[in-house]
């Protein structure tokens, strides 16, 4: 008996439209075991205060190293997990693992805002907010230190349900961020009724910031609009110091990107906090004095 997504893959193959179908089929078949046997891992990427250069959070990003298939990137397996429905269990594992880490760090004196990514199906599950509430309570963690990142397409899949779910999560005290903003088709006008706290500008606008005048205009006007709507702003994909300087001039609140750090395993993240992070606050002081 083939699952729906496996049937879909088979159909793709028969149409000759998907040569990587075998790998995708293998990924789909291996996923349930990976979830149950804890073969998934989280990496953490720091978020920086744009004004001070201080760390103000971390985003949990899933990783999967498979014995035979090698590294499977989330961009490859998350869409498959969404098709098969496995994403519901993936997300719950991600939330639990990220909160375990947050609790452990708090015990070590590392107090950090944690962000996790949600998919469309998570927002449709009626018990999702209750699940989050239970997991937070079990670890004595503050809901205000948990950010849930959702993309526009996840929200648009069922706007009414998403709205309801995000409202519940926000009433708990969690923060909601709209991820990859600018890559979808919805306008801020359509999204204004969503209970949002933060807007994450997609990296495609940030990478060309230094060289592309159009990107600068798009980013500047999006930042202004977001601030008028009382949303905090986050820029992803900051790879160069020049982008930091420009984003500071434009009044962006938070930065994330390889310039500061790639996503790191928990222990590496702790090392980075100790050895690398202080560099950015100092660098920032120098930069401001020179501006
Ligand atoms: P996202 O949530 O927008 O995460 C940002 C992605 O950009 C991450 O890729 C991160 O490693 C990458 N990135 C960060 N800074 C830079 C930079 O300066 N330059 C470049 N080129 N890339 C940068 P990653 O970890 O491969 O994740 C890709 C996407 O997969 C995520 O995009 C998210 O949509 C999804 N994803 C990852 N983990 C999860 C998860 O636990 N659950 C769900 N539902 N989706 C996840
Ligand atoms: Mg994200
Ligand atoms: Mg993003
Ligand atoms: Mg993305």
From TrEMBL:
EAL domain segment(s): 24-277
Superkingdom, natural source: Bacteria
Name of this chain's protein: GGDEF domain-containing protein
Portion of the parent chain present: 469 to 759 of 759
